[in-house]
Amino acid sequence: MDLVEHTAPQPSQSGHTSIFDVLLLGGGHAGLSAALTLYRHQHDMVVFDSGQPRNKWRTPTHALSGWENRPADDFCAVTRAQLEQTGFIRFVDQLVETISRDEASLFVLHCSDGSQWKGRKLLLSMGADIVFPEIEGYKDHFPQKMQVSLASVHAGVLCLLISGCSFHCLFTFGLEHRGSASAGILSMGYAANPFHASILIEDARKFAEIITVYTNGDVVLANKIQDTGVPDILFDHRKIRRLGSARDGPGITIDFEEGETKLEDFIVHQPPTRVNPAIVEQLGLKLDARGDIMTTPPFYETNVEGVFAAGDCASPFKMIANAMLMGANAGAGIARQLPRSITGNRVDQSSAHGKECN
């Protein structure tokens, strides 16, 4: 891939700060996709990456054209290397602690190393954190036994699979476990919604003969799920004490408060996610019912003018392909809000210098 070289503006040594066209918070798939779009319009930008992706466990990537069975972070590394060649992008591997707006309506980002950066537009592509349920053994098995990746979402359902065999999503690793004897649906959180639970049940049934729904003490929920018309489902209403690994071979054990233990080949669950609450509060962003940042398609601008959001932080569809789509569209929308009358950019930015402000 041939990329045009350019020298991006740098923070000055005099205490002033260069004005960048765009500040991108998050160097994952959405942020990099936006950067690939923006540099084609000669926009100088900074990509901030704390190095703390939601998928920390190098799980194989599936359902991404050209990258089957390869780690997702390697995909990002290749893209980042290509972007670094353009000269339009600077990568800052620091945690952004605060975001504000100055008297000129520029966005001001303060990083953990004390550096300060200013930009005309802001893209939030920092993903979202998993909120683990308060069940002993659930989080403890990460990453050895229960792994999370950029989960596939279909029909509005985010699905996480937990197993002693280390797979996390039916669209990602269900195929590798076809022919399983049994599987469980942990019907808590989002999966406590009868409609969502019925979808997960039918998905799991494609790979396991017997499906048991664990309601963790909610007897009424079982009746609601049955009312959706899903046939041949077993229900277990006992309170769960802990999850553990099978002693021999794959599988996961469910220990109940009353003392008994049950073994499943895998468990399906839908854990909620949470967007960085400090960033949400500092910018005054609106969230939807799931806790994702609200945006307006097709360019994904938020309720705050000049702030865009893409990827896992702004969509229930937390999968790589969707993050890339949102990032590319957001990049196009941002570029259209940055004509030369605003940026002062040259028609050939190859030799441009940083634009200084006090």
UniProtKB/TrEMBL annotation:
Keyword field: Flavoprotein, Oxidoreductase
SUPFAM superfamilies documented for this protein: FAD/NAD(P)-binding domain (SSF51905)
Residue intervals of the FAD/NAD(P)-binding domain: 20-142, 273-327
GO terms assigned for molecular function: oxidoreductase activity
Swiss-Prot/TrEMBL GO biological process terms: cellular response to toxic substance
Family under the similarity heading: Belongs to the class-II pyridine nucleotide-disulfide oxidoreductase family.
Descriptive protein name: FAD/NAD(P)-binding domain-containing protein
Lineage, top ranks: Eukaryota, Fungi, Dikarya, Ascomycota, Pezizomycotina
